[in-house]
Amino acid sequence: MPKPITTIPARQFARDLAGAKRAADMGPVLITDRGHPAYALLRIDDFYALGGERQPSRSLLALMDGLPETGGIDFEPPRLIDQPVAADLD
């Protein structure tokens, strides 16, 4: 059975994001701008199913670990000369 499509004006979407997310749990949400469809809000599982892709199973950290080495970043912060002093509020 096809999921129902909900249409929400952009102003209502901006005021009630939680309501739009609840509606997206039931099916796609079309967000209109001046009466014309401008955006679509989908659950991530529906998005991956639409594109024929599987949901990535690796974490962001695992993806970053897989990036090629760049040699690191040379950064030497300057030494703090003046020590901070607490404000005298009396």
UniProtKB/TrEMBL annotation:
Domain of life: Bacteria
InterPro entries linked to this entry: YefM-like_sf (IPR036165)
Family, per entry: Belongs to the phD/YefM antitoxin family.
Protein name per the record: Type II toxin-antitoxin system Phd/YefM family antitoxin
Annotated organism of origin: Ideonella azotifigens
Upper classification of the organism: Bacteria, Pseudomonadati, Pseudomonadota, Betaproteobacteria, Burkholderiales
